[in-house]
Design goal:
This protein is an alpha+beta fold. It has two helices and four strands; from the N terminus they run βαβββα. It starts with a strand and ends in a 14-residue tail after the last helix.
Length: 92
């Protein structure tokens, strides 16, 4: 599960959250108030924790969002409720 760490009033964090919502990907949001401590493995905000790796920084976050978009596009393409009939009449 992806965890998104953000400050409440951060336009860049709003953009990231909107991208995650548009992808329809499962994630949790942890809103960190000003002055509150960050988890030990989160050096800066906004941050994404995905598969145990924490991603921060605009370039790295944009790259991870692109990777997640690709993942979800593949997922949606190959996970459909369709029935295919082979040329010989068998259903696959």
């Amino acid at each position: 599960m992806i965890t998104f760490y953000r400050r409440p009033d951060d336009p860049w964090a709003d953009e990231i959250q909107s991208a995650l919502d548009d992808m329809v990907i499962a994630y949790e949001t942890e809103t960190v108030q000003a002055g509150a401590s960050l988890p030990d493995d989160v050096p800066d905000l906004p941050a994404l924790r995905d598969d145990g790796e924490v991603v921060t920084g605009e370039a790295a976050l944009r790259s991870r969002l692109d990777d997640l978009r690709t993942l979800m596009a593949d997922w949606n393409r190959f996970q459909s409720d369709t029935c295919h009939v082979n040329e010989d009449g068998t259903v696959c």
